[in-house]
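Hi,

Apologies if this is the wrong queue. I'm a grad student, and the batch job for Acyl-CoA dehydrogenase C-terminal domain-containing protein from Kouleothrix aurantiaca produced an output file that my downstream script rejects. I'm not sure whether the problem is my script or the file. Here is the sequence I used:
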Amino acid sequence: MGERVRFVGYIDAADQALRIAGGFALTRALPLERLYRDARAGLTHPPNDDAALELIGRAALEGARTTADK
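Support response: The file is valid. Your script probably expects a header line. Output copied below for reference.
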């Protein structure tokens, strides 16, 4: 959840920078195009390996608890 909040902040900052710079900001001559693209991609990229393994483990444990409660 914290990572999502962080990336939403990145997107907001990149949006403001693009508005200030205008249409020229979307050219590859400025780094804003890449920064905006990277910020948007951060929402869809999977977490690092350790975080993914922890998420999978927690889900498996929760599933085991739910099954045991039945």
